[in-house]
From TrEMBL:
Protein name: TRAP-type C4-dicarboxylate transport system, periplasmic component
Principal location: other
PANTHER family linked to this entry: PTHR33376, SIALIC ACID-BINDING PERIPLASMIC PROTEIN SIAP
GO CC field: outer membrane-bounded periplasmic space
Localization per record: Cell envelope
NCBIfam families given in the database record: dctP, TRAP_S1
InterPro entries referenced in this protein's UniProt entry, alphabetically: DctP_fam, TRAP_DctP, TRAP_DctP_sf
Keywords: Signal, Transport
Similarity field: Belongs to the bacterial solute-binding protein 7 family.
Transmembrane segments: none
GO biological process: transmembrane transport
Organism domain of life: Bacteria
Keyword Protease: no
Amino acid sequence: MRNIWLNWVALSILALITVMPASAADTKDETKLKLAHALSSTSHYGAGASAFANSLETISKGKFIVEKFPNNKLGSEHEVIEGLQSGKIDLAVISTSAVMDLIPEIGMFDIPFLMHDLQHARNVLDGSIGKNILSKFPEKGIVALAWGEQGFRHLTNNVRPVLTPEDARGLKIRTPQNSIHVAGFNYIGILPVPMTLTDAVKSLKDGSIDGQENPLSVIIATQMYNMQKYLSLTGHVYAPALILVSSKLYKQLSSTDKKLFQKSGRAACLKMRDFVDDIEKRSLERLRKEGMQVTEVERASFAMAMEPVYTEFYKKFDKRIIDAIPFQRKFQ
Ligand code: PAF
């Protein structure tokens, strides 16, 4: 009697599973992924993270669900890199400064005045030079799905309008913790103070530093206009970003799923580029309204003043690659 009853229960469960809609059955197999980034959800990082999540969730038909952790919620950018390596974090949209210790060659893109404009930078990243750098990540426990973008970095400060390299001399300026930025600034007499962005915000508020430098996308996202009076459009360095996935996760994916991740990485990259194009068009008006004094500078005078520091970079990086980069402009 007991056996008949057990068989009946088993058959009823089987019947229920058979008539269950595909979506409900899928939720059992859905994989939740953690994606970290340093800025707000409304920033260019947030736009890249959402584009990645929307693409992957759609093309995988809900097999992967991406949970986003903005504003350093999972730790500083350096901690996020460790999290990707250990597998505690699955995905990140992140600056290149965070991976300088792992892939020193990536610092090449921080050489001042190497990139002419956004299109030139995108040609370089999408071409063999950019692809070669992305290919170095797997040996460090991370897979680089695509380049993202922040834009060209500009100088802000609270002391005076900066029009020439001489005007910038003696200013205490926060830089990312990145020796290439420090070398360029040292050369023109700026006093670089490398620290995290979180510490920079505290130091700008307490007046222990005079300024910082970041792309317009970050200046808007961090409401730098509430902390800084003068913005000089130096465009001294192009800042890419990266869309990264933990190798621990990536290795377990089927080849079909790997393609979905790659495709979603590209979607994030394109979204970030659109975001930067848009912010380049609209943000100056907004920043002026917010009270910033915006100054156009002679970029060439800054470039010339920093040129001698290239001797240092030629020792550190492959000179042939540095010298090849200006020629990538012709692919526009
Ligand atoms: O200046 C930096 O450290 C980076 O540009 C930032 C703002 C953290 C974005 O990754």
